[in-house]
Structure formats: C-alpha cells, structure tokens
Amino acid sequence: MRATCRICRRHRPVMADDRICFPCSVGITHTCPICQAVIPGSGHAPCYPCSQRRRSERQIAEEAATIPIRWMSGMFIAFCESGRIPLDNGLATERIARAADACRRIALTAPNPERLTTDALHAAIGAEGTRRVAPLIAFMSDVGVLDWDRARLQVLIENERVEAILTAHRDSPHAPLLRRYRDSLAARNRKPITQRTALTAALALLAELGDATLGDLSQRHLARALRKSPGHRAALQGFLSFVATQGGPTLTSPKPRRLSPVAQEKRLRAEIKAWRKRLERPRSAGEARAMLIMLLARICALPITRVLALRRDEIVVTRNSVTLWPAAEAIILEEPFASTFLRWARWTSGWSSQPGPWAFPGRHGHQPLSEAAIAYHLDRRPTPAENDRRRS
Ligand SMILES: [Zn+2]
Ligand SMILES: [Zn+2]
Question: 201 with 235: CB under 8 angstroms?
C-alpha cells in the first residue's frame, strides 16, 4: 500500500503495519540539498521544513502580486519574512492567506493608503478582522506605517454595537426617535458605551409602550419598565428629558420607595423569622449557610461582606457560647444560635480536606462564599414538592 511515511513524510509504498517506507526501515539516509541536514530516506528531496518553507515562499510571492499598492505589497512580504509566521510549518499557509486578504482589503478601501489609521483599518476589515490579523497589525505599527490606537478601536467597536441596536429596531415605529436620541447623545459627546446603555434603557421603556404613539407614553409605562429593570433608572433620566423635547409627555421617574423606620423594623423582624424557620429544616447545606450568614448580618448589624470574610481563626468556642472576631467586634452568640452556627460554619481549624482559612468557604475553598451565592439561596422559592416534604 502507498501512504505517507511516518519518518520521511514522503508518499510511497509503506509497510502496512507501521507506515514506514523501505529506505527508512533499513536506515538509509540522505542530505537535504537546502539545509544540509542528514535526514531519513533515500533520494535528493529537501527535508520537510525546507520543502514547507519553499511552499510558503512561493505562496508569499503569489499573494504579494495581488496586493494593488506597491509599498503595501512590499510590507506584506517583509511581514511574512519577519519570523512572525513560522514559514516551515503547515500552519503558515492559512496565516499568509489571512494577512494577504487583509492587505488587499485595506489597499482597496483605505481612502488615504499612504497613512493608515485605526479608523481606516477598522473600516476595511472590521473588529473581528483586526483580531484575526493581530500579528500583522503589530508589525505595521512597529515599522511605522500605522498609527494603532487601541482606545480608538474600542470606541469604533462600541459605535458598531450602537449602530447594530438601531438597525435591529429600524422597523419599529419609534426608530426615528431612537436615531434622533442617539444623535443628540453623540452631539453632546457622550461616550459610545454610555450611548448604548442609554439606548438599551430607552428601548426597554418603548417596549412597554408598544406600537402606540409617543403621546401615549405615561407614568404607567415608566413604572412598569422600572419594575422590570430597576437598573435602568439612571440611564432613563436622560431619555425622559429628551422625550419631553420631542413633543412627548413630561414624565418623572418615581423615587424608589423608602420605608418608614417602623415598617423597616417590621420587615426586618419578618425576614429574621422567615430565615430562622428555613434554617430549622434547610433543603441543602448551601441554603443553611446562606440563612445563617443573613441572620448574622442582620442580628449583628454587619455588612454581609464582613460576615462572609469571617475566618476560622476569628472564632472562639467556649462551653456555651461562641465569640466571633474576639479582637474586634467580639460578637458573642448564645445558645441555641451558637449551636446552629457551629453546625453550619467551618470552624475547626484541623479540617484537612478543605484548605483555606474561611468560615464560609466558596466552592473551591480558597475564597469565601460570594454574595451572589447567598442571593441565589435567598431568591429561590421552595417548589410545591419541597413544601410538602417540609410540612410532612
Ligand atoms: Zn520514509
Ligand atoms: Zn532542509
């Protein structure tokens, strides 16, 4: 059978079982005519790296001929031969083709190809393209034919995203309004990323309005949008003023409701009661620890982050109490809460299977549990099945 010999990589008859040609199997060698290396196999052919390099050089010359600007074609050759592409490797083919393609597109679209700018490059090959030919871009800025400005590229990419949002909603009855809003933001020199957040918030509000006209926009829509995404409050402020200048209604964003001290106290007590109850029969150790952490934070009036950062060596256990942070707050937990604490916190310092100093370690042990993990357990409502189990 014929196949590629595993040793000399030539296509010739090979022994079927180990895919080595006859000359290689009996130890015949020859000298590579290009690099003079002694290589396995008979004949006069160059070694694999040399023949691969020859192929790459041929490809470079062919590609260079298709780049319409002479200096750019020369720059392309210099780049390929600069050592940034391993020419004696099969991977070279793809990389040479990619760089040549970028050069051709830049040569065809750059308005002033004598002085390449970040904008021209982005216009020619796009953000994705600049990522694909990063070594070529590095070379061009090293040899001084390109003023590469990474911050500028980020701006261009953000602009593109803003444009994509507008394009996605171009069939909406509010498309002209959105575009005018973007233009007004740009005119006031708002950064593209700010423009994008502003547009996203505006879109969320307009989604509540649906296809109705801007004149119908009401506090009700605004309240609903804010209930769904409270995070848009700040970003919407500007849009509300803009809507008023566009003949729309003057709306004011409702203040987030503040509870009276009495109501706050009442809610706090209700929360504590609910968490204690969940802690009595937790569905998982994770839930138990989340409840314990919330109770500690509320009862001791500490920020959750402070509780999460509790270290094992900051826990002192005596016969019927537990002291946390003995050197600082010195919070004393009495029974029965002390026992509950000791049941769910990692407090013995000799626990060898779980390294790390934390009383509430996260999944990998070298960091404390995250606030997100706590939030997950707080929000998770019991399923009906779990409720039944709890009652039984
Ligand atoms: Zn061989
Ligand atoms: Zn060679």
Answer: yes
Q: How far is residue 221's CA from residue 223's CA, in Å, rounded to a whole number?
A: 6
Cα-to-centroid distance, 317 and ligand 2 (Å) = 74
* Model confidence at 389: pLDDT above 70: no
Distance CA 189, CA 377 (A): 43
Distance (angstroms) between ligand 1 centre and the Cα of 71 equals 43
CA–CA gap between residue 5 and residue 181 (Å, rounded): 67
What whole-number percentage of the chain has pLDDT above 90? 33
What ligand is nearest to the CA atom of residue 46?
2
For the segment 73-102, the average pLDDT, to the nearest whole number, is 93
Q: State in Å: Cα 134 to ligand 2 middle.
A: 30
- Ligand found nearest the CA of 19: 1
Residue 191 Cα to ligand 1 midpoint, Å, equals 62
Q: Which strands, in side-by-side order, build the sheet including 331-334?
A: 315-317, 321-324, 331-334
What is the tens place of the pLDDT at every residue in 207-249? 999 988 889 999 999 999 988 887 788 889 999 999 999 888 9
The angle at the Cα of 274, spanning 271 to 277, to the nearest 5 degrees, equals: 150
pTM for the full model?
A: 0.53
Query: Which fold is adopted by the domain 262-391?
Result: Topoisomerase I; Chain A, domain 3 (3.90.15)
What separation in Å is there between the alpha carbon of 49 and the centre of ligand 1?
Answer: 15
Which of 292, 296, 268 shows the shortest CA–CA distance to 279?
292
